[in-house]
Amino acid sequence: MAENASTSPEPTRRDFLYLATGATAGVAGIGAVWPFVAQLQPDASQLALASVEVNITSIQRGQAITVMWRGRPVFVRHRTEEEITAARGVQLSQLPDPQSDDARHKANRGQWLVLVGVCTHLGCVPIGTAGDFKGWFCPCHGSHYDTSGRIRRGPAPRNLEIPPYEFVSDTSIRIG
Question: Fewer CB atoms < 10 Å away: N or C end of the chain?
Fold first, then answer.
């Protein structure tokens, strides 16, 4: 008996069943979790919209267009002098989310405003040239934005988001 105590015992059928059960449970666990992990990846149609170029030649002063970028609406607005003057005349102390008009557009391009068209309250899409400040109005819960996309009244906590964008030329903007 002393000889058997010094050597390792032979694997038994029970040991094999433990290993097989553990391996099967591991594979089943990975198989169960895989769909949840895969659904976190962006849709292939969204990946194609990582950036979008917008031709702005046909947008007249006072008009706006909506383009889709990463599955979200983006407002491109060609502001009038009156809209720019009204936006610059607002005291920052009157704003729930203080931000100057100059911080909301590219330098020397104050007539162009590019905003993500999603209300910062609950994600609705505001209506353009509407509301008390003639900017955007979210009819779902009553948020009013001015002509610079800043929240002025209502439950929205922040200004409309500014996406990353650049002027590729005098007639084209690249968003994203």
Answer: N
